[in-house]
């Protein structure tokens, strides 16, 4: 019996030693440098100067309450959380979100949204509070107008919280009330942040030179990271700590909504942006310096913007299927398969030539998926 126990112990210790002996970091110095550029995470909170209630606990409380309350829809039938499901990474599991009708796009995840530069798939807004107002006033979604929203808030259980934060509602113009509601929603959404993952532990270990700790990151994930940084050229668009360059690209996804309608993407988004009174350059911004207004003042529409869409963050992405602006790719495997065999005929002839079929082997595809999933295994 004793010999048997010692034999099992010896086998266990031998396996443990072999595991430690084979653990390693296979990245080159250049790959390590590129890996370090994807952190640290999470970023420090910086209040939005265009939103005077950004970061205020009372605004966060009000925004959270309203986010989950159907008062923001005119007929009281839906809330923000119906399309931005907390159990689904604050994204929509439906391919195309549903309001009063089936909408044209899949609702983007709201996690890490405060780090964006442009908002929505097409970038129709340059700030979070303006974007928060869009579904509320859209006839195809929550279907309020400024007056009906003001009346709904006046009759709601949230009136005291609203007035404690913004003052007497009856003395405010209806549009001001709408903007205030949107700013409280934005204050809440700024708190929706994914935590550090096994990728971040690997990245941070490499930064401090702790190879032993870094070697715990699976070799398959390391090989997938090498594909992501190198051969796949994924980091061209999915760059930085949030794994997005925050800009707009053509991913080779069809932009036909049906046989007679197309989604113009960024091209239409810029039309909406220029028509909006709620930009960082406008009077509803609380930033006296208008420090972020340069973007909307300088951006110029191009023909190549047609059918391009904002690059989403890859953090937390394993929980937010389906993917692409129209929800046409059901899971991460479908995304890898899309880029593996991408149809170059779908890319704009006057756009950027950055995509080619990856032609990954079965194991390489598996490795890339393993890496992508390490961007979602949050600790907190």
UniProtKB/TrEMBL annotation:
Residues annotated as binding heme c 2: 234, 237-238
Gene: ccp_1
Top class in the EC scheme: oxidoreductase
Protein name, UniProt field: Cytochrome c551 peroxidase
GO MF: cytochrome-c peroxidase activity; electron transfer activity; heme binding; metal ion binding
E.C. number: 1.11.1.5
Principal location: periplasm
Record: residues binding heme c 1: 80, 83-84
Natural source organism: Pelagimonas varians
Taxonomy of the source species: Bacteria, Pseudomonadati, Pseudomonadota, Alphaproteobacteria, Rhodobacterales
InterPro entries given in the database record: Cyt_c-like_dom, Cyt_c-like_dom_sf, Cytochrome_c_Peroxidase/MauG, Di-haem_cyt_c_peroxidsae, MauG/Cytc_peroxidase
């Amino acid at each position: 019996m004793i010999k048997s126990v010692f034999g099992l112990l010896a086998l266990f210790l031998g396996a443990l030693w072999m595991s430690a002996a084979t653990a390693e970091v296979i990245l080159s110095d250049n790959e390590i440098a590129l890996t370090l550029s994807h952190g640290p995470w999470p970023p420090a909170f910086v209040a939005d100067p265009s939103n005077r209630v950004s970061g205020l606990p009372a605004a966060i409380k009000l925004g959270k309450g309203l986010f989950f309350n159907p008062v923001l829809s005119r007929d009281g039938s839906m809330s923000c959380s119906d399309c931005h499901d907390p159990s689904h990474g604050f994204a929509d599991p439906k391919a195309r979100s549903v309001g009063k009708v089936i909408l044209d796009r899949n609702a983007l995840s709201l996690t890490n949204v405060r780090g964006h530069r442009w908002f929505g798939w097409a970038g129709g807004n340059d700030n979070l509070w303006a974007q928060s107002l869009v579904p509320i006033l859209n006839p195809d979604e929550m279907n309020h107008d400024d007056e009906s929203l003001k009346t709904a808030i006046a009759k709601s259980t949230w009136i005291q919280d609203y007035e404690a934060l913004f003052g007497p509602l009856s003395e405010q113009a209806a549009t001001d009330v709408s903007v205030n509601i949107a700013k409280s929603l934005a204050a809440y959404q700024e708190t929706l942040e994914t935590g550090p993952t096994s990728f971040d532990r690997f990245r941070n270990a490499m930064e401090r030179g702790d190879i032993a700790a870094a070697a715990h990151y699976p070799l398959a994930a390391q090989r997938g990271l090498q594909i992501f940084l190198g051969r796949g050229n994924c980091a061209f668009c999915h760059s930085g700590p949030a794994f997005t360059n925050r800009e707009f690209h053509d991913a080779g996804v069809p932009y036909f909504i049906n046989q007679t309608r197309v989604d113009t993407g960024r091209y239409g988004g810029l039309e909406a942006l220029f028509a909006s009174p709620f930009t960082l350059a406008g009077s509803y911004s609380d930033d006296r310096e208008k420090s972020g207004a340069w973007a909307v003042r300088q951006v110029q529409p191009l023909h190549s913007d047609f059918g391009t869409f904002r690059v989403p963050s890859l953090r937390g992405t394993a929980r937010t299927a389906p993917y692409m602006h129209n929800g046409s790719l059901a899971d991460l495997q479908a995304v890898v398969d899309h880029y593996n065999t991408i149809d170059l005929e779908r890319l704009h002839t006057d756009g950027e030539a950055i995509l080619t079929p990856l032609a990954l082997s079965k194991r390489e595809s598996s490795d890339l998926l393993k890496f992508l999933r390490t961007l979602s295994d949050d600790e907190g």
